Amino acid sequence: MPTTRLSSPLLTAAVLAGLGTPVVAQDLVLYSGRGESLVAPLIEMFEEQSGADVEVRYGGTAELAVLLQEEGEASPADVFWAQDPGALGAVGDMFAPLPEDILNRVPEGLRDDQGRWVAASGRARLFVYSPDRVSDDEMPASITDLTGDAYAGRVGWAPTNGSFQAHLTAIREELGEDETRAWLDGMVENDTQAYSNNSSQVQAIADGEIDFGLVNHYYLLRSKEADPNFPVDQALFEDGDIGNLLMAAGVGVLQSSDDQELAQQFVSFLLSDEAQAYFSEDNHEYAVVEGAGSGNQEPSFEEVREAAPDVDLNTLDDLEGTLNLLRDAGLL
């Protein structure tokens, strides 16, 4: 369930008023599909620098996109920060155009072609594996190989995770509905193990439960940072394979926001050198602003861009179609 973080000034005002609900409005309301442990430090930095209070509603990216559609113009949200472009596209008509000085800081392939959202950071989809239990000839060339007999019962995925759902939307775009449905059915028949998220797949490989997982690149890097001998490695599929999707965690400002200037200020902050360095150095994601971040990722941003398929992130807006496909396959 999504949670809301209320800043101490708001709570204090509510207590002083003797009411069960707050009486002082927050300066900025943020719907965040990014996890609290990943982004709360950045939000605190913004509060300190801007003097604004930020009320954050955390939740699944797809869940928050649906909530925004239900709330419409009555939504209290000023900003939506999603972990994938599919959810951003699904609510794209609710966003206000961003100013050119924000848009021009992000490469064209990592922003909305109508100027409604921008990437704040980049993530690579790839596979993790056990170097102890996987031989060289078992390394898959394509994500579609994983339906083969050699991988039966050995692969993990996270069908309820927003990143996986965005990836599946790209697979639908690349392979078509029929072939994507066949791949999903083949993975189910091959006893692919379901996990709640990316990190649990990485840990499951270390624990010997599975030998392969489909994840975002930075989860293993965090485990390796804590333990350099962590017994899991990761790799890209062959160049151009849809398994190597380069994804954007992006952000947009709601048209219904009554403080467009502050909302845009938050988006601009996420593209600042300080925030981009945080994404790169602390979260191990990819900085999207040229010259920002440490660039010490594995695989490198250049390797990922070379290996990624040519997919227009602006086309990944049929989130509902993906959710329906997952329901039909018995995965939701």
Automatic annotation (TrEMBL):
Q: What's a single GO CC term here?
A: outer membrane-bounded periplasmic space
Among InterPro entries, the record links this protein to: Ferric-bd, SBP
Residue sites binding Fe cation per the record: Y218, Y219
Q: Which CDD domains match?
A: PBP2_Fbp
* A GO term for molecular function: metal ion binding
Write the record's keywords in alphabetical order, separated by commas.
Iron, Metal-binding, Signal
Q: Record keywords: Cell wall biogenesis/degradation included?
A: no
Indicate yes or no for the key word Disulfide bond.
Answer: no
PANTHER family membership: IRON-UTILIZATION PERIPLASMIC PROTEIN, THIAMINE-BINDING PERIPLASMIC PROTEIN-RELATED
What family classification does the UniProt entry report for this protein? Belongs to the bacterial solute-binding protein 1 family.
Protein name per its UniProtKB record: Fe(3+)-binding periplasmic protein
| Organism whose genome encodes this protein | Palleronia marisminoris
| Phylogenetic placement of the source organism | Bacteria, Pseudomonadati, Pseudomonadota, Alphaproteobacteria, Rhodobacterales
